[in-house]
Amino acid sequence: MSDQPSAHMSGGARRHGAALVTGGSRGLGAAIARHLASLGWHTVICGRDEQNLEAAVRAAADEGLVLHPVQADVTDEPSVAALFERLAAEAPPLGLCVNNAGSNFSRRLVSVREQPGGPPQLSPHPLEDFQRVVTSLLTGTFLVGRHAAQAMLTAGTPGAIVNISSTVRRGSYGQSAYCAAKSGVEALTRTWAIELGEYGIRVSAVAPGVVDGDALRRRSAASERHAAYMADLQRHVPLRRWCDEQDVAEAVAFAADNPSVTGTVLEIDAGGLPARVLGAAGPARTPAERPVGASRTTATADHPEKAEKTA
Asked: Which has the least CB within 10 A, 32, 119, 149, 155?
């Protein structure tokens, strides 16, 4: 937990009460948090890295906004319990929980590298990477969502849980772990909406496509091959553009505020992504397809902006 003094999160509730954004220290989570703060939410961000949390608070302050940081690991049950204990003691009643934290180490189920004059070299998807992605995206969403529901039920106040899913949850090349986890997030969303609706708690999901954010720009600037692939992919998107962080943040706010939105997934993806992009002479080589024996740091997925850790 952060050593920030209790007074940092104290004070009267704003118009909406408290909103928790997991993985809110950078990237999409930070953008969602800043937007909610601008709308009047008492916005609490959590993440594992205290320096990133402090940087997010400073960036928000430059815009005249206040974010309240709490250090927590969404994959660790005692850490999540401590987070919600602190919220109960120091923040207004919880009105919104945004499950955004997670990371992506996905790749193809079995990568194949042809060898001249010999059998192909095979590199299977590492189990540890699969488990890490599912734990961060799916188990983390379960733990935080469970505690958020308990907090709302205990307070007897209606609220909303918004889970960040993905437009590729139905399946995408090179994304075994990520797609499995995000599909699970959708299943949790629809199940919780059924279970919690009678208590006035709404549960929905927002599913971004490729997000035009800092992570995508850094990778494109660092690799011409990556930039070319992403440009080719963008030409297959109906609107021929990526969504941006503000698009997603506004969708989260809509899901949080609209009293009839529950049990659904809002697609924020400029019309959708193809499951795979093929070149003129066969399959396009993607950033996920590293040669056998290459450094694991290059084993990101087809949509590598999602490989950034958000917690």
From this structure: 119
